[in-house]
Amino acid sequence: METFDRLREYSQELIALHHTLALLQWDQEVRMPRRATEGRAQQFAVVSSLIHRREVAAELGGLLAEAQERQEGWSVPQRALLRVMRRRYEQSSRLPESFVADFARLTSQAQEKWLTARERSDFSLFQPALERLVEMARRQAEYLGYPEHPYDALLDLYEEGLATARVTRIFTALREPLVGLVDRLAGRLAPLDFAEPFASAAQERFAEELLRAIGFDFNRGCLARSAHPFTTTLDHHDRRITNRYAPHGLDYIFGALHEGGHALYEQGIAEDLANTHLDDGVSLGIHESQSRLWENVIGRSPAFWQHFFPELQKAFPVQFRGMALARFLRGINAVQPGLIRVDADEVTYNLHVLIRFELEKGLIEGRIQVADLPALWREKYRRYLGVEVDSDANGLLQDIHWAHGSFGYFPTYTLGNLAAAQIWQAYRRDDPEAEAAIAAGNLARVREWLTARIYAHGSVYQPGELLLRVSGEELSERHFLHYLDEKFARLLA
Amino acid sequence: METFDRLREYSQELIALHHTLALLQWDQEVRMPRRATEGRAQQFAVVSSLIHRREVAAELGGLLAEAQERQEGWSVPQRALLRVMRRRYEQSSRLPESFVADFARLTSQAQEKWLTARERSDFSLFQPALERLVEMARRQAEYLGYPEHPYDALLDLYEEGLATARVTRIFTALREPLVGLVDRLAGRLAPLDFAEPFASAAQERFAEELLRAIGFDFNRGCLARSAHPFTTTLDHHDRRITNRYAPHGLDYIFGALHEGGHALYEQGIAEDLANTHLDDGVSLGIHESQSRLWENVIGRSPAFWQHFFPELQKAFPVQFRGMALARFLRGINAVQPGLIRVDADEVTYNLHVLIRFELEKGLIEGRIQVADLPALWREKYRRYLGVEVDSDANGLLQDIHWAHGSFGYFPTYTLGNLAAAQIWQAYRRDDPEAEAAIAAGNLARVREWLTARIYAHGSVYQPGELLLRVSGEELSERHFLHYLDEKFARLLA
After folding, report:
1. Sign of CA dihedral B332, B334, B335, B339
2. How would you class B432 by CB atoms within 10 Å of its CB: exposed for 0-12, middle for 13-18, buried for 19 or more?
3. Is beta strand B238-243 parallel, antiparallel or unpaired with respect to B223-225?
4. DSSP B94-149
5. Which end of chain B has the lower number of beta carbons within 10 A, N or C?
6. Do A39 and B13 touch (CB under 8 A)?
7. pLDDT, tens digit, for every residue of A225-264?
């Protein structure tokens, strides 16, 4: 067999195992009885360890070296597959097996500690575990290696090639304008408040209608319910999303559009990359740019609701009786500083992320100690968001990321927001009819543009390269700030 | 680590992979979009091949040999684990890897051929594949080895220790009485016929009610929908069943009780066998005895419906308005010769199985050629059931088993029916209040008896040994024939 064919075969075998792992996870969230938790963890551990063995196998090392020598004349996607597999192989090989095992054990214990600490709202119960996790993350960075800053190594896990210096520069440029915007906007757009509850079956039907409208292919995926919405891939032709339906509020709409955005990205990947390492969104930041683009840039826009608000009123005549579209739009775009990241609006959200980034960076540098986190958390929330942290549960225990051992993950949320605005700007430049089409309920037009420029390529291009190809420039905060200014000026006009 | 602990650990790792495989299967039937079929097959193949490697590993061979030497002083379940793992290891090791791969490829192609042949009702399209499958099954028997008859080797895969001579004797003893019974009963009990369709949500609710009543634990499993009902185990605490709901008829009730019976068996296995090779029903025949016991012996009995018929009438007032219990009981026990095994009643069912057994035995002996099957099928259906086979689709293409490469599987269905009657007889001997309890809606009593004597033991005892312990005698057709005589005498009284 040709070298490339063997490489692809190896890739497909590994991806089949990763998809199997994803199914174990999906099923746990969607269907599994809770009593099977321990057994599922064992299944997860067994399959993960088989994957790890295949990912660091000498056989793979030899194949990659052979491919490296013979890649002349290979197509762009062929070379990309080699690059992505080699990157993964090197990442895995740099971490000693004992470190991986220790880390897995520690994060599993840490999650338990975190759960208990959050339930009792007592950070001291999580502090010792977090201290060890930070220590592990610092060692992880040393094993992985980095160009300048140890945090580079961790960022790179989620966003290939992203440097700490760059993130610092972007957040520094964002901070003042965002704090100013919050000051100006807080309280000026009244949130929506519904006296009548929404029936969950009707919510689900409306979510399905929206998903169909944006182009989610129900023949290549499905929608289910879980405690926390997520998107997963079980096969090139099987991209699934979940959602949840609370009796009050419209979170399920934005949850559906958010996960729908992730899924559109995945469903749009070209068939010739099927079930290889390239059959995936290229990075967390670019993935998030697509969920945010559909959830916020499109999904909270006047044009979108010009078409869908009458549909929503039809689906829930009691709740929306007599409500004007302008009132609805202000409500779904209300800006209000709060304590909880996942409940935050488009503007304050990035300040929540900024706080986490500053703390993570300090922890990895060793400049900040875990014991100092509660005080720092309170201080930063006061300074950037003007809110008083009332408890550890609503403070630094709200996110599971650190208990997972994930440092360097949070920044990708804001990078996603910035990239979404930047990509949207590029689309509008290309298509002067952009908003008119959306207002007419035509979402295929923007989806096709995104598919051709982003989705179809899967992981062929590195994230920075992809953004450059799509938008003509490197990632910048400029478009996002412009997008916010323009949006809120219209809403308040 | 002690030898036994290492053995158990090895067992649990393998079972975790088997449960993962079961999840891939479950999800395919219950949720997966059809377009993902090819990718799922690849996942299945990758995980299966990892399992196979672990099942024939020299490491396991060494561990089994070591355990064999040190088993003195081990408990009964500990020695049973060794025995079952060794049996599995030897079965796997006897089949050359190239044979396993060829067989897998052939059955996968054969299933496609079978599907097409069935759709076009043309056996000739399946005939070449079946010829190769029979040839493979004969080679398989030679690799596996057998005491007397090559078919012994195949029977033993599904029913440990079962001999062809014994099955032949039992079927010979069944044939005349069953044919006679069909003659006497055909047409004397009118089937039920409903003008009004049943709403599928209401059917599902009633099925759930029945499952709760017989003791299916919804905290350790769930009920879903699929094209064909089945039961599967994904963890010691996760035993799942599926059912289907046609707008007419009551098949869903007996489907639920049948799969419920399988699931009760699995849910009843003792916790100290959890997720090992012993955490499973001991054989297909014993498993089927429990599904049939709940579906037929209990689920079609006057006592059962004395309690549940009023509930059924409440759930479907239109359909059962004015119907007497006696009429209902005759309807659900109607005997009517037909062409299709899965639609058959309790009496004729075993004649369908008998026909398949006679043909399989002849094929494996080489006495029957695949080309002769259509004529033989027609002749036997005429002789034993008095019906004319109108097409290949309603004839020898109706079952998928041969396309799966499964020969020796069919007899276990009838052995299950016989064992169910034999076990029921033993229970009634032990509990004179048996029927009264059921008539009062108390199903815990019989379930607890079955759990203590059968379910809890998982695969600790060999099937023949288990039946002997439970009923005091070896498998016999006597109790089943007696059960039928008694039942129909009462129904016709």
Report:
1. negative
2. exposed
3. parallel
4. HS-HHHHHHHHHHHHHHHHHHHHHHHHT-GGGTHHHHHHHHHHHHHHHHHH--SS-
5. C
6. no
7. 999 999 999 999 999 999 999 999 999 999 999 999 999 9
Q: How confident is the model at residue A257, as a pLDDT?
A: 98
Residues B236, B317, single domain; the answer is yes
Give a yes or no: residue B201 inside a domain: yes
B422: domain range?
Answer: 139-493
Identify whether residues A236 and A304 lie together within a single domain: yes
Tokens matching residue A211: 């998903």
Cβ-defined contact of B16 to A221 (cutoff 8 Å): no
- In the block, residue with structure tokens 């090559």: B150
Report yes or no: B24 at the A interface, CB cutoff 8 Å. yes
Say what the ipTM of the complex is: 0.93
SS (H, E, C) A142-183: HHHCCCCCHHHHHHHHHCCCCCHHHHHHHHHHHHHHHHHHHH
Among left, alpha and beta (phi > 0; psi -120 to 50; other), residue A445 is alpha
Bridge partners, residue B319, by sequence: none
Q: Answer yes or no: do B199 and B75 share one domain.
A: no
User: Does residue A274 belong to the interface with chain B, where contact is any CB pair within 8 Å?
Assistant: yes
Cβ(B91)–Cβ(B157) under 8 Å? Answer: yes
Nearest-Cα distance to chain A for B224, in Å, is 10
Burial (Cβ within 10 Å: 0-12, 13-18, ≥19) of residue A94: middle
The domain boundary, picked from B75, B94, B113, lies at B94
Residues of A in contact with B221 (CB under 8 A): 33
| Dihedral over alpha carbons A95, A97, A99, A102 (to 10 degrees) | 150
CA–CA distance, B112 with B32 (Å, rounded to integer): 19
Active-site residue, A259 included = yes
Alpha helices in A393-457, H assignment, sequence order: 411-430, 434-439, 444-453
**DSSP for A341-397, written as a single string:** GGG--TTTHHHHHHHHHHHHHHHHHTSS-GGGHHHHHHHHIIIII------STTTTT
Contacts of A377 (CB under 8 A, 6+ apart): A355, A359, A389, A395, A396
- Are B169 and B73 within one domain? no
Residues B129-147 have a mean pLDDT of 97
- Test A33 with B236 for CB contact under 8 angstroms: no
Cβ atoms A42, B12 nearer than 8 A:
yes
Give chain A's count of helices (H) and strands (E). Answer: 20, 3
CATH at residue A376: 1.10.1370.30
Residue A290 near residue A456, CB atoms below 8 Å: no
Q: Which residues of chain A fall below pLDDT 70?
A: none
Which pLDDT value is given to residue B472? 97
State how far the alpha carbon of A329 is from the alpha carbons of A189, A195, A255, A308, A492, in Å: 9, 18, 17, 12, 10
B324 and B399 belong to one structural domain: yes
Q: What angle do CA A410, A414, A420 make, to 5 degrees?
A: 140
- Catalytic option among B55, B159, B259, B360: B259
Question: CB contact, 8 Å: A476 with chain B?
Answer: no
* Nearest-CB residue to A275 (from B20, B39, B224): B39
Looking at the DSSP bridge assignments, the partners of residue B34 are none
pLDDT at res. A104? 87
- Is A132 within 8 Å of A103 (Cβ atoms)? no
Q: Is residue B165 part of a domain?
A: yes
Nearest to A459 by CA among A84, A158, A92: A84
Provide the 10 A C-beta neighbour count for residue A432. Answer: 8
Residue owning tokens 């064999």: B68
In this prediction, residue B145 carries a pLDDT of 96
Helix, strand, coil shares of chain B, percent, nearest 5, are: 65, 5, 30
Tell whether B152 and B77 lie within a shared domain.
no
Q: Say whether A234 and B36 touch across the interface (CB within 8 A).
A: yes
- pLDDT, chain B, mean: 96
Question: Residue B469 is inside which H or E element, if any?
Answer: helix B463-471
Contact between B202 and B316 (Cβ < 8 Å): yes
